[in-house]
Amino acid sequence: MSIIFSRQCEYALQAVSYLALQPAGKKTSIRELTKKLKIPYHFLAKILQDLTYKKLLVSQKGPSGGFALAQSPDQITLFHIVEAIDGSDFAHKCVMGFPECSGKNPCSIHHQWAKMRDEIYSMLVTENITEMAREMKKPEYRL
Amino acid sequence: MSIIFSRQCEYALQAVSYLALQPAGKKTSIRELTKKLKIPYHFLAKILQDLTYKKLLVSQKGPSGGFALAQSPDQITLFHIVEAIDGSDFAHKCVMGFPECSGKNPCSIHHQWAKMRDEIYSMLVTENITEMAREMKKPEYRL
DNA sequence: TTTATATCAGACCTTTTTGTCTTAATATAC
DNA sequence: GTATATTAAGACAAAAAGGTCTGATATAAA
């Protein structure tokens, strides 16, 4: 099965998107997130914990606790999230899996692929959470 | 870990590439392939078996047996191989993993992603094995 | 200060993917 | 026809990814 992001990463993107829709500073509980996003509770808990450890979210324990974005949403890009969960190997790894594939020693689709990979990368780096939230407020949005 | 193709699929692409470099009709043994490509013997055997079952390769048992392309190399595209091993879900699945993401009900990066996905798809469909082999005959090629 | 409500941490289980092994079937060459 | 080189098939093992559970810890509110 061809994938782009791992399931964990998809869940992370979804959760952060949801948090971006909340009023700044408001803490959202795992319970609310899993209910809205239909992600297994404990699995999401681990992902959020991870994002907190990596300084993308902040957490607070206790009643009325929960998670919130750690930084202003226009400083968090999609790439920050992807990198935190899945790493950034895709940005240099050969599509065909040749270990020594490089510019000097290319695989047969190296250059075509490099172009697309760069486009994907620059999308991830450019797109920030503020823009995502704006997009999500459009009437056709699903959440 | 963000991936595009599964390991199996990478190996399939590598193996088919290698076969494309051989004289038309020549049978290549698993042994030779694993030696050159450094892929685990039995694992590759299974992948080749699979590609044979899916009519992309032909096989012959016995001494001087092995595998060869089943069709003229300009009729086999990268997409044929990827589809056979990994399927074509990536061509319609939501990047963020939202189950009901679609044109009418888009995720926040739906449209940007659709553009890139289409480019990738059309590259896979356009690029055929003949072109790959031509590319591989260039001096800087690694095999 | 107590209690209820959260996250934190880590052990554990399940499924999928990757990889290995063994035996059978088959075709070639002698 | 027999020996040998090769793929076919399927069971098995190991590793990675996905998912669950439980108990500890922190904190806010009563």
What features would you describe in this structure?
The structure is a homodimer of 143-residue chains. Chain A has a domain of 94 residues: Arc Repressor Mutant, subunit A (Orthogonal Bundle), CATH 1.10.10. Helices cover 49% and strands 6% of the residues of chain A. The first copy, chain A, contains six helices and two strands. A two-stranded antiparallel sheet of chain A has the order 1-2. The mean pLDDT of chain A is 93. Chains A and B meet through helix 1, helix 4, helix 5 and helix 6 of A and helix 1, helix 4, helix 5 and helix 6 of B. The first copy, chain A, binds a DNA duplex (30 and 30 nucleotides) through helix 3.
Rg of chain A over CA atoms, rounded to whole Å, is: 17 Å
Looking at the structure, the CATH topology of one domain in chain A is Arc Repressor Mutant, subunit A
Please outline the major beta sheet of chain A.
2 strands, antiparallel
Q: Write down the overall geometry of chain A.
A: elongated
Query: Helix proportion of residues of chain A, in percent?
Result: 40-55%
Measure the end-to-end span of chain A. Answer: 27 Å
The number of helical runs of chain A is: 6
Which segments of chain A are poorly predicted (pLDDT under 50) over 5 or more consecutive residues?
none
CATH class of one domain in chain A: Mainly Alpha
**What's the CATH H-level homologous superfamily of one domain in chain A?**
Winged helix-like DNA-binding domain superfamily/Winged helix DNA-binding domain
CATH architecture of one domain in chain A: Orthogonal Bundle
